[in-house]
Amino acid sequence: MNEKKAEVIEVFSSVQGEGKYVGYPEIFVRFAGCNIRCDYCDTMHLAGAFEMCGVEDGVGAQSFHMIHNPVKSEELADIVNKMLAQMRHQAVSITGGEPLLASDFLMDFLPRLHEGVPILLETNGTLAERLKSVLPLIDIISMDIKLPSVTHKELWDEHREFLSIASKKDVYVKIVVADETPMAELEKAFALIADVNKDTPLIIQPVTPNGTCYRPTAAKLLSVQRTALNVLTDVRIIPQTHTLIDLL
Fold first, then answer.
1. Residue 72 backbone phi and psi in degrees, to 5
2. Contact (Cβ atoms closer than 8 angstroms) between residue 213 and residue 180
3. pTM (whole model) above 0.85
4. Strands 5-6 and 71-72
5. Nearest Cα to 142, choosing from 100, 178, 180, 185?
6. Three-state DSSP class for 121?
7. CA dist., res. 39 & res. 152, Å (int)
8. pLDDT by residue (tens digit) across 63-119?
9. What CA–CA distance (Å, rounded) separates 163 from 65?
10. What is the 3-state secondary structure (H, E, C) of 160-224?
11. Of 235, 230, 224, 233, residue with least CA distance to 183
């Protein structure tokens, strides 16, 4: 079988800035390509746009060298394993874009990583069939729920199926909230999570403003949390902390 290749944007070591495991050191492998487009997206992710992949020169270096795309699974695993050897990391974060678009590559790449390091999948939670194929190789799932007001289409059925499959793992759900986010959409998302498992941790993430989306007020965030707690048991408000301290 030919070795798999994928378009990778960057590989680096940093601190997890979002979600349940915020503050832990992780290695990030960011894949190009996404199947949806969100108004608040902070990542240039279009497939085919990355002739080169940026690789951090070493853990904590904050400087990069470039390698050609697409990257072979063996080459990428070697890069990540060398970083793992330099310092203990809580996990390897597979992110994007939408990394499940590269599910065939992940099935070849992930088994090549050092045994024992947890794999954290950061996903938009819409590609259930692709999740099934890689699920045995994943330990933690950070699943977004994408609201119609930011994607301009409804993904409720996709999210419900995805979360039902993801619930077999250590999963948490993240919803980005802006000042203009409709409460009716949030309530529908909370009910969807509760229908699958009311104990699933929910991270309410205030949007990082980008000129088209605006940060929610403290009053709105607290109202959103109170509403979520009517049907869910674990609801936290956590911003993008890496942007606050200027980390990668």
1. -75, 150
2. yes
3. yes
4. antiparallel
5. 100
6. strand
7. 9
8. 999 999 999 999 999 999 999 999 999 999 999 999 999 999 999 999 999 999 999
9. 37
10. HHHHHHHCCCEEEEEEEECCCCCHHHHHHHHHHHHHHHCCCCEEEEECCCCCCCCCCCHHHHHHH
11. 224
